[in-house]
Amino acid sequence: MSAKLFFANRALLFGLALAVVLSACGAERTPAAQPTKPAVQVTIFAPQPTATPEQTAASLPAVQPTPQASTMDPRGRVPGIPDFECPNPRPAPKGFSFGIQSNWSVGDIGYWNSLMAEQLKLTWTRAKVNWYEFEPERGKPNLMQFQLFDAFVADANKKGLHIVATITQPPQWTRVTPPKQPYHRPSPPEDINEGIRFFSLITARYKGCIQAIEVLNETNLDREWTVASGELKAADYVSFLRSVVPVMRQIDPSLIIIMAAPSPTGANIPGAVQDDFLYLEDFVRAGGLDYVDCIGVHLNGYNMPPDKRWDEGYNDPTARFRGPFDNPHHSWSLLSTIEGYRQRTNKPMCVTEFGWASTENLTRKDGTPVQGAPPGFDFALDNTEAEQAEWIMRSLEIFRELGYVRLATIFNLDFIQKIGQNPDEPGGDPALYSIIRQDGSPRPAFERLRDRAR
Predict the structure, then answer these.
(1) Residue ranges in the chain whose pLDDT is less than 70
(2) Could you give the domains of the chain?
(3) Is the peptide bond preceding residue 49 cis, with omega within 30 degrees of 0?
(4) Counting Cβ atoms within 10 Å, is residue 353 exposed (0-12), middle (13-18) or buried (19+)?
(5) Do 186 and 56 meet the contact criterion of CB atoms below 8 Å apart?
(6) Which helix (H) or strand (E) is 387 found in, with range?
(7) What CA–CA distance (Å, rounded) separates 440 from 40?
(8) Pairwise CA distance, residues 392 & 408, whole Å
(9) Nearest residue to 348 via CA among 298, 415, 289
(10) Fewer CB atoms < 10 Å away: N or C end of the chain?
């Protein structure tokens, strides 16, 4: 989820804040073993293997259909694997709709897509496209990763899901400037021609199946954006958009282009982090609104209900984590943040991450109860599972009532089963937001979403 730095009393809270920035969603995580799954009937729609010469004639259909020529834009071709054909091409739905993020590349694709589409009856799923995983070496695409994504996209499309893809983390071979930390994979690709090529490839290959693309991620953090100047400048991000977006629009005019959601930081540390409101103002001045259809939004929840503004005096005297109450700032508040983005841009909002972390009823992978929260996520100790559920559902009502939110994706469905870290370990923070538990049983948020669909 989005990182957070505290606006007031930084001397007291800076260490915690920096831990959040460094340990949030950009950190590398080790995949876990295959997740445990409750029973659900699953169908998977993925490319089928071609019959081999060893198969007997009796095992093959009597008449083989004549392969049809590919209609895919050649810019979407990956040498060594077949072209991808979207089963049911369609644009994004009209009006507000929502979904959830699954860690799509881990586990049974058919099962998790069926859970989202058939049990929860969601409209959207968010998929992170980490570029370095698809092209780890120049000129040597990871064919397995592309085929896995082909299967995920085709299956999600057949089951009625729309996909918002966040393309981020370019491989190091596209860059000259080293990352500030060895575990960072910052943008942008400094070879802009490679940036144009890869964004064109994803747009062309999955045209009609991917309805929205978020161009990079949280570019107001040095973890996500590092250039030779050492500065975090929205104008530099706009320059990147100016290069890649016209080609994306030419390939797929119906595609929703989303500005990389800023991290709601609440602080300015030169070269490390910029306040999200100030970053948006710089983005507007640099002409960024000309290149996007929607402003990306990340809302971390913390231990604040979604309908409380930062400056209305709300206080939870029982809260152990005191940031929102003792150091009020817009970035603690879901409502204040999204209203502030709208005031500064007058654009539709696309909430690509939102949710609430809770440690209640979570276990480690050995079945023992969690021992606290990972560094920087103490607010998860204040939130019950019931609050997580209520606040997610109330947020969806707020987004609909605001009238300018285009889409929203909850973070997250299943990371607790799909990352290697325990929920109370560094890097285990995504597990706190999951709406299932380690054993696959539903948390109240899952049940509320499922029941609303009946």
Answers:
(1) 1-69
(2) 84-452 (3.20.20.80)
(3) no
(4) buried
(5) no
(6) helix 385-402
(7) 12
(8) 11
(9) 289
(10) C
184-214 burial, b at 16+ Cβ within 10 Å, e below that, comes to bbbbbbeeeebbbbbbbbbbbbbbbbbbbbb
Per residue, what are the HEC states of 321-341?
A: CCHHHHCCCHHHCHHHHHHHH
Helix (H) or strand (E) holding 409: strand 405-410
Distance in angstroms (rounded) separating the CA atoms of residues 350 and 294 = 6
H or E element at residue 195: helix 192-205
Residues near 55 by Cβ (< 8 Å), separated by ≥ 6? none
With 0-12 / 13-18 / 19 or more C-beta atoms within 10 angstroms meaning exposed / middle / buried, residue 320 is exposed
Structure tokens at 322: 């005191």
* Contact yes or no for 143/78 (Cβ under 8 A): yes
Backbone angles phi, psi at 100, to 5 degrees: -150, 160
Average pLDDT along the chain: 89
- Contact between residue 221 and residue 270 where contact means Cβ atoms under 8 Å apart: no
d(CA 199, CA 197): 6
Triad 246, 299, 454: Cα angle to 5°: 95
Residue (of 280, 279, 227, 289) closest to 257 by Cα position:
289
Written as six digits, the tokens of 19 are 């831990």
| 294 CB-near residues (< 8 Å, 6+ apart) | 212, 256, 257, 258, 259, 347, 348, 349, 350, 406, 407
Please report where in the chains the tokens 């490390």 appear, as a residue. Answer: 272
The reported pLDDT for the residue numbered 23 is 37
Amino acid at 396: L
d(C-alpha 77, C-alpha 164), whole Å = 21
3-class SS of residue 419: strand
Euclidean distance between CA atoms 160 and 123, whole angstroms: 7
What residues contact 132, with CB distance under 8 A and at least 6 apart? Answer: 169, 170, 171, 172, 185
The pLDDT assigned to 1 comes to: 58
Q: Tokens for 377?
A: 């996520």
Contact assessment for residue 163 and residue 210, using Cβ atoms and an 8 Å cutoff:
yes
Token pair of 156 as six digits: 């999600």
Q: How far apart are CA 77 and CA 420, in angstroms?
A: 33
Q: For residue 323, which amino acid is it?
A: G
The Cα–Cα gap between 218 and 26 comes to 10
What's the pLDDT at 17? Answer: 38
